[in-house]
Known about the structure:
Helices cover 31% and strands 23% of the residues. By secondary structure, it is α/β, with parallel strands linked by helices. It has a single domain (2-200), classed as Rossmann fold. Helix 2 (61-73) links the parallel strand 3 and strand 4 (79-83). The termini are far apart.
Amino acid sequence: MIFSSEDDAPIAIDLLPEWQAAPGNGGASLELEIGSGHGGFAVGFAERHRHRLLVAIEQRSKFAADLAAKASRRGLSNLLVVHGDARLLAPRLFRTGALDAIHVHFPDPWWKRRHRRRRLIDDGMSVMLLRLLRRGGLLDFRTDVERYALEAAERLESLGFDNAAGHGRFAEAEAEEIPSTREKRYLVTGQRVWRLRLVRR
């Protein structure tokens, strides 16, 4: 099921759509958020960057529906909310090299060994992220789990991402950075967030 920012009703999207024709994009940049949660980043991004199209994929149906409704109320035609599994949907929605940026914020680390296959940043998903980004495209990764951050940095750099902060290093928060709903809490409590800003060569 796919939710539009135009209303609360589900809509269908063609396989590999021509995103440049989407409302609010005007042929400008195309970006993806995987796991939008309560939508703090997606809404903030769409409000600040009206000329950039953001597709937010969220696996939990209630969160996706709530975010779509919020985008509709605020008139954010440059935010499209999609309900489903990004592993399955992203290759069907975007051509190779189509994305200017991908945002992955606070994915579940799935600590138990039997759950490792559910991790978002595994080998298969990492290769897909690299393939969907254009050359010079940005992967914006954030987590509150240091071990997950270290493992993600090692895996992503080994696949062909360049680390903007330097090999194995984490980026500092930028003044214009848009926090997710979860990160807003961390900004108040002072909890550490590990950031990777990785560029496709």
